[in-house]
């Protein structure tokens, strides 16, 4: 077994591992841990969410949901990592996952929100509706960055998917995008986003090293770099 630290460990600090996906709803995590391991989890994320009490419902209309999602992306960009600008994302402050999230974003912890957002990104990216895919994927990346510890593999894997989505959008340039921007500007913007997301993916996945299977994330990152080098 190989164990990889997500960040620097200080002398005497307790070392922990996740038993399950931290993005799962609190009650789902707690029930699974009690049933399978016989304990109530008191990790920083569970403790933080327990202090919130019942999660407030999501806004009833899509416009207000989008406003909350925009606030999430703004918060993550300001405090955790760059979501859009090309370049190496800054290192996150060493804070507990979930801590510091503004109260107006707590509704996004609703159990139905993450599965719905993930499904929207997956469906739209596979169907070629890249404008929706990039918007929902960006929000999903922000959600992961707010919940997961820095360098958690899911952040890197999703950033890689976003990079591929931005690349696919750049070479297809559907009519909805072309209608609002000159095509060359759109292509450059999408290529820059693909590079940025790829930089983030490589930074996170570098912590773990290549997987044993051929065609894994490192191979996909290599291919994406070659494709993007041809556009420089």
From TrEMBL:
InterPro entries xref list: H3K4_H4K5_MeTrfase, SET_dom_sf
| Domain of life (superkingdom) | Eukaryota
Q: What name does this protein carry?
A: SET domain-containing protein
Organism this protein belongs to: Hermanssonia centrifuga
Lineage runs:
Eukaryota, Fungi, Dikarya, Basidiomycota, Agaricomycotina
């Amino acid at each position: 077994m190989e164990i990889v630290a997500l960040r620097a460990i200080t002398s005497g600090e307790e070392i922990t591992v996740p038993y399950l996906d931290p993005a799962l709803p609190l009650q789902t995590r707690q029930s699974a841990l009690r049933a399978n391991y016989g304990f109530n989890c008191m990790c920083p994320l569970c403790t933080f969410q327990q202090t919130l009490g019942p999660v407030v419902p999501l806004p009833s209309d899509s416009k207000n949901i989008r406003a909350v999602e925009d606030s999430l992306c703004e918060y993550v960009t300001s405090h955790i990592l760059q979501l859009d600008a090309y370049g190496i994302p800054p290192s996150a402050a060493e804070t507990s996952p979930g801590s510091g999230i503004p109260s107006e974003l707590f509704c996004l912890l609703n159990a139905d929100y993450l599965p719905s957002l993930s499904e929207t990104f997956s469906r739209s990216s596979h169907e070629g509706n890249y404008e929706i895919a990039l918007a929902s994927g960006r929000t999903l990346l922000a959600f992961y960055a707010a919940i997961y510890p820095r360098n958690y593999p899911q952040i890197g894997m999703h950033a890689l998917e976003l990079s591929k989505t931005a690349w696919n959008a750049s070479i297809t340039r559907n009519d909805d995008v072309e209608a609002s921007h000159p095509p060359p500007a759109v292509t450059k913007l999408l290529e820059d986003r693909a590079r940025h997301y790829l930089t983030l993916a490589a930074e996170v996945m570098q912590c773990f090293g290549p997987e044993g299977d051929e065609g894994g994330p490192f191979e996909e990152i290599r291919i994406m770099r070659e494709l993007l080098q041809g556009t420089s």
